[in-house]
Amino acid sequence: MFPEESVTYRKLIEELLARGISAVTFVQGMTAKEGAALVELLGEARITEIEAAKDYLASRRVTGIAVAETSTLEESGDEERNREVRARARESYDAGIKAMRDVEAQAKLGRVGEVGSLDRVVGGLLDNLLQDPAAVLGLTAIKGHDDYTLNHAINVCILSLSLGSALGVPADELRSLGLAALLYDIGKVRIPEDILLKAGPLTADEWQVVKRHAEEGADLLKRIQLADKMPMIVAFEHHQRYDLMGYPDPAAGAEQHLFSKIIAVCDAYDAMTTLRPFRREIRPDKALAVLMQGRGKAYDPGVTKALVAMLGIYPMGAVVILDDGSTAVVYRVNNDDLLHPRVKVLADVSGRWMETPEVADLRVIDLET
User: Fold this and answer.
1) Is the Cα torsion angle 368, 142, 292, 209 positive or negative in sign?
2) In this predicted model, what pLDDT tens digit does every residue of 9-45 receive, in sequence order?
3) Domains of the chain, earliest start first
4) Planar angle of CA 167, 173, 178, nearest 5 degrees
């Protein structure tokens, strides 16, 4: 696993990957100014594609640094098809961000308008998941610091659709699950931003305000009279916990709907692995360990185990150190051997980025323990 002292290095790799950059070549003669330009690039939230990154470096007259795109790291096979699937998946992701931005803007005015655009987003993500689950799940590595709520909603939707499929949710019900996963936190638009984004601990009064978002969201969705009631149900239930010790108080004899259990665990996973103003993010493998510790209390045991099985002990996007000291990123999980995923080796033992990253199956090469 990636050592704690290398968190900064890991974060650098994750920021590069989120922008479609999987290889960086430093040309002899590179200047400190050019290095600073690369760092500044990572601070530009609007840069999410390899071409935009290349254009940015070119505009800064950077010639000592070359970046390569993720597609150059794929295994041999139908490269054109792989690129098309990834492109469609990213289009669905970006469409989801736009649709959610529009919905949130309307919700802040006290209404939620037409959600047909969200239905289309869910349909697009489902179609892409059927073709290449790994390509779509890989998009959840995108962590937006400026648009956290939007990225978080799409990431939770992707994780929930994947997990629901793994749990055997019928295809016609997955669309309902996906819509609920996009709208379950809509009540937060009624929470003051100074409380939502507070860097320090919340006061008792502030915590009570935050807890209202579940009921506020359910009320908002009830008033727009969606034909599908699942978003309203999940908005109300997603913080009740498996042991029903959460909030709001459940009705006598009630228990969480399966979709609420799925979205609750996906919500927690994506939140823990994302940097927030009030706390640091944690590694994907540690987040899964936290979820497993909460089985039977905060989270449904079966649903939690299914998420771990789906993502693997070392989830996609996790940066790991191999036995030989080289640095790699997990890009596919081997479902028949969760301890040994497939990785792309990005840097050798000395920390030098490889011009042509190598693909390795860790069913053959053991992870460092």
Assistant:
1) positive
2) 556 666 777 676 766 766 666 787 887 888 787 776 6
3) 4-73+316-361 (no CATH), 79-311 (1.10.3210.10)
4) 85
